[in-house]
Amino acid sequence: MKHYGAKTLLKGAVLSAVAAGSFATAAIADEQFFPLQSYRVGPYAAGGTGFFGGTIDYFNLINTRDGGVNGVKLTWEEGETQYEVERGVEVYERLKGRPNIAAWNPLSVGIAYAMIDRITQDRVPLITVNHGRTDSTDGRVFPYVFPLLLNPYSETSGIINYIASKEGGEEKLKGKKIVVLYHGSPYGKETIPIYELLKEKFGYEVQQIEVPHPGNEQQAQWLAIRRYKPDYVVLRGWGVMNPVAIKTAQKTGFPVDRIIGNVWSNSEEDVIPAGDAAIGYTAITTQASGADYPVLQEIVKTVYDGGKGNLEDKKRIGSVYHNLGIVNGILNVEAVRIAQKRFGNRTLTGDEVRWGFEHLQLDPKRVEELGAKGLFHSINVTWDNHEGDGLVTFQQWDGKKWNVVSDWIAPDWKLLRPIIEKSAEAYAKEKGIKIRTSEDADKVTELQGTASSAKN
Amino acid sequence: MESFDFPFFIEVLVGGLLSGIMYSLVAIGFVLIYKTSGVLNFAQGALLLFAALTFVSLLERGVPFWITFAVTLAIMAVIGILIERTVLRPLVNKPPITLFVATLGLAYVLEGGAQLLWGTQVHGLDLGIDDVPYVVGGVFISTFDLFAAAVAASIVLLLTIVFRYTRIGLAFRAVADDQFAALAIGLKLPVIWAAVWIAAGFVALVAGLLWGARLGVQFSLSLVVLKALPVLVLGGFDSILGAIVGGLLIGASEKLAEVYLGPFFGGGIESWFAYVFALAILLIRPSGLFGQRLVERT
Questions:
Q1: pTM attached to this predicted model
Q2: From the list A49, A184, A219, which residue is nearest B15 (CB)?
Q3: pLDDT per position as a tens digit, A66-101
Q4: Please, which residues bridge with residue B174 across strands?
Q5: Measured between beta carbons, which residues in chain B are less than 8 angstroms from residue A181?
Q6: A206-224: string of b/e by CB count within 10 Å (b at 16+)?
Q7: Do A212 and B269 touch (CB under 8 A)?
Q8: CATH pick for A30-150+288-380+412-455 out of 3.40.50.2300, 3.30.360.10, 3.90.1490.10, 1.10.300.10
Q9: Which of A22, A51, A116, A302 is most buried, by CB atoms within 10 Å?
């Protein structure tokens, strides 16, 4: 039997204590957790892999390059939803008990709708970047929901403003015929009232035509469009509906450069399957595509060259969905960083992160500091404006890549705000929700999932 | 009152008939399996996805078109044999509902397997046929849809020849008529089932390429089965002629309904109208227009 001397034992004890100490430190290290209700299989997998891949790539960049957000590591876990509401809720139920949740990012209108009451109870933010319920822009009624950058009404206004600019001014819209071809889902129907309302203002004619889910057959709709002879068709599609629309337009002789895609009809996945029929197709976007931006270069260098890249196919780096995921990552991280300035560089509660989102103000200078100049313009979220006045731009497909064809365009927020408030107030009345004030918004809950401990 | 636009009506009708042919192509794959084994193969859409995804993935790796076609066909044949060995054979003599559920599970395995093997990315597929409209008397007709109709007609002709004039076709018909009698005269059911699954794989490949060229090769291809189901209900589950006629009727009726009745229902009615139409026929003819009527002694 081997005998150890007192010195050796002491050395061992010291080493063990140090090791135990480091373990304990690791175990209690500050972490901020992001549950991700992703979809990597199923009909919308192309969008899901790109978006969640982008967000995870950005989180990895922050962890690897900066050691987290002021020392707080970002952690996450994915749950597969296949873009189905039931599965999305199932993932929510499974992950909601995890400590240190910063925010939910489901990238699905259906899942987001199903979670509004739940996350409001939990006091954890729900981020619906570029989509979601329009009236959730009103933070007075929806304190925890953030349709960041662009809500559906702003998107509509941006598209109409773009058409006006193409025609030579708003007054030229009078008498123009516009068809809105929309996906037969709550998402697709969200903008029906606003097109009618803007019609009153600008004097255009509009016909709104539904395409049943999933949209793989559109012959009848496009024949009806051909008969109506519109000046423009706005495509409010999703998934397979988009390439089919572009191809059927060609089949029925409608010029592709008169089709304007919405923000969920603007990706490579929407045009590549349509082949040459998509050349000249234009779509709105809040973030440019391409991998030339400094933040993307850093992701390539730090994350992908380090073997931690999330996209299997590196050719997709800089694609529309990947870049949207990166912008989403930036917005989530900056909200945490802003909240830390008030509450300290530590793990935050969901409600503290909500406060961070309500002060998410990134001007073009800050966007440039983040390496994202040109990737997206700016954002200015406040306690009662949860969209943050994102600007939009338009891109045209040349058969290989998207090219930006407009300046940054501002939607008509002044016109839209009263409509949004009216809708939100009706919702508040229906649900018996007390309308918040700025003082209410400044109070935060220190404990996750409870409403017991408020701090001014 | 607005006058009736007859050329437009013809245009919608022709477009609907040509779309219906595309539905028939998918329905034929169902009929082949149902006719010989009495199984409603819910995995037909997944087979279609698997075939198209394999084809386009090989093509994108620089394999020439016809070699890609042959290799994909061979892979589909192997899958057909594997299905017979691992799914059908162990379930011999089980009730039809068991076999149906087995094909439902098979659909998930094939869909997941296809995505695991080839990824989830959306692919374009160019078969070299421009989809520019062909104008006849002011009526726009899709060149691609005409091509698809010609392909469907060729497949029906080929299957008719195989069923009527070859030994394997005769065996198919014997099994379809009475499995026990076929066994009694020495026909090997496993061989016939494997052969018919290979044939269904071939139909899935052709339909997958045509639908893939239309939609892009992506997961949604597996959802085209939803278009084939009312066709089968209408035409009958065991009749190739029924699949063709059913496809034409469903295609034309849903398009006409969408254009002329849709505005009264807020639009977007074609997806459910096809099922309502098929259901109405079912009430009159429970076996469909061309399906074999079951006569049972009580």
A1: 0.85
A2: A219
A3: 999 999 999 999 999 998 999 999 999 999 999 999
A4: none
A5: none
A6: bbbbbbbbbbbbbbbbbbb
A7: yes
A8: 3.40.50.2300
A9: A51
